[in-house]
Amino acid sequence: MLCLSGGAARAEDVDALIAKGDQFDKQFQAKEALEVYLPANKLEPKNVYLLVRIARQYRHLMSDTSSKQEKLRLGNISLKFAERAATLAPDNAEAQLSPAISYGKMSPYMGSRDQVNASPRIKAAVDRTLQLDPTNDIAWHILGRWNRVLANISVVKRLLAKALYGDLPVTTNEAAEKCLLKAIAINPNRLMHYIELGRVYAQMGRKEEARQYIQKGLAMPNKDHDDPEMKEIGQQTLQTLR
Length: 242
Hints:
The structure is a single chain. The protein is built from twelve helices and no strands. It starts with a helix and ends with a helix. Mean pLDDT is 92; it is low at 1-6. The chain has two domains: 1-96, Tetratricopeptide repeat domain (Serine Threonine Protein Phosphatase 5, Tetratricopeptide repeat, Alpha Horseshoe), CATH 1.25.40; 134-242, Serine Threonine Protein Phosphatase 5, Tetratricopeptide repeat, CATH 1.25.40. The longest helix has 25 residues, at 2-26. By secondary structure, it is mostly helical. Helix content is 79%, strand content 0%. It is globular.
């Protein structure tokens, strides 16, 4: 009886901590969210919901620092929690996608070898997510960005990467376009889809369409934590179209 009552009390404590952390999460207060999510994780280390949300807070902290070294440190912590969630919940789409998001956030700050190693892991995580939930707009967005980046690696860089680290997948900007149009169709209220599609069109030389989609994204209100950063990227892309 004592063991049962102790277990019930612990579950109640975890639920209370999660509820408190969720409020901070909604307000993009990552540090405060972690102050309650992490103690809850100690009580329930296999709670997939918690692991996914802890990974997200560390990604938010990545965006909030300007230090490349600190971004990578926080990103690796995020990845650790995300991968734990994915291992524990192979049929949970959100858990499967979490490592891909962490890798994607880290990729611009990684060395070439780590970027090459991360690429198939991102693709595998996204593919698994879309098997579980074909309507996951963020998964389509990540797949679109993955295609855009790989489609625009020069022949010289591909040969160098092959010699040093292994083959990179071959894809196209058209594949990226299809993924991002799919993301927009599923969720037309997420500004990052429009700006990322604009970046694809910019790389395709379709400047008018690039401006149209980027400006649409810039005109939308910020809703997600990374929206201000995404708008900065959009503004930078617009500068290159002049």
